[in-house]
Design brief:
By secondary structure, the chain is α+β, with helices and mostly antiparallel strands. The protein is built from 6 helices and 18 strands.
Length: 265
């Protein structure tokens, strides 16, 4: 018995950049332990598992270490696979039932738009070890339900970060976002994202982090539309729009590998 699996680079149109995700379109629900083992085997920041349930898809995301409540790039990759492999026509909306509620994706000229919940941060005191782990002087510190947000003075400080991942792993949150206003006029802000506590030392491009970053920078810059760059070694570009309590994230995706998992009884 085999299970088809597709690897997609998300938030990029160039293979071997952006954020890779594995996608399994299942015939029926799979056992949670099996999905976690597959995610560990793939060793990507996220592996997505989905199956059709009427006119929607049930969708779950796993890192190599844990299931997560919200993931942008693996949702984008899942929608890309549904359209590319003919599960849905390109003019059809992809609708996903997830641990974060109903998420939608639409396709327009090579760009995929995700409709996600905004996760605005509130000012916070740094937990023990955070600033020591990052070794930066923060301009502001905030947090939402998922992550800490650390704002620094300039883009170079974001790019130069070499965090102590052992210390970050002790912080009782999913991850840490570090951000600054962009130097390149093509972008409004840059960021990086670290989540060693859930098995992701540095995530290349993090859609869900931008559900925090978009409302934050909207408050700072007084606008609702942005172009952002996640300055990881792989890097990726996002177009963003804040609409009430939702964030619309636009990105591209490219398939880089197709294969089959051997599934034992």
């Amino acid at each position: 018995m085999t299970q088809r699996i597709v690897q997609v680079d998300a938030f990029t149109a160039v293979p071997f950049s952006g954020n890779p995700a594995a996608v399994c379109v299942l015939d029926a629900p799979a056992h949670e332990e099996w999905m976690q083992r597959v995610a560990l085997e793939m060793n990507l920041s996220e592996t997505a598992f989905l199956y059709r349930d009427g006119d929607v898809y049930q969708l779950r995301w796993f890192t190599p270490a844990a299931e997560v409540d919200l993931c942008g790039h693996a949702t984008l990759a899942s929608a890309h696979v549904l359209w590319e492999e003919g599960h849905l026509p390109h003019e059809a909306e992809a609708r996903f039932i997830t641990r974060s509620g109903l998420l939608r994706a639409t396709y327009d000229g090579g760009w995929i738009t995700l409709d996600f919940p905004a996760k605005p941060p509130a000012p916070a005191h740094p937990p023990e070890g955070l600033l020591e782990a990052l070794d930066v002087e923060p301009v502001a510190i905030a947090r939402n339900d998922f992550d800490y947000l650390v704002v620094v003075a300039d883009e170079q400080a974001v790019r130069n970060l070499q965090p102590n991942l052992g210390l970050l792993q002790r912080i009782n949150m999913r991850g840490v976002i570090v951000t600054a206003k962009a130097l390149d006029p093509k972008y409004d802000f840059v960021s990086r994202f670290f989540a060693p506590g859930v098995g992701v030392p540095e995530d290349p491009v993090t859609g869900s982090a931008h559900c925090c970053l978009t409302p934050y920078w909207s408050g700072v810059l007084g606008r609702t539309e942005f172009t952002a760059f996640q300055a990881s070694p792989r890097g990726g570009e996002l177009r963003l729009r804040l609409v009430g309590d939702r964030v619309l994230l636009q990105g591209q995706a490219v398939t880089v590998m197709r294969g089959e998992l051997v599934v034992s009884d």
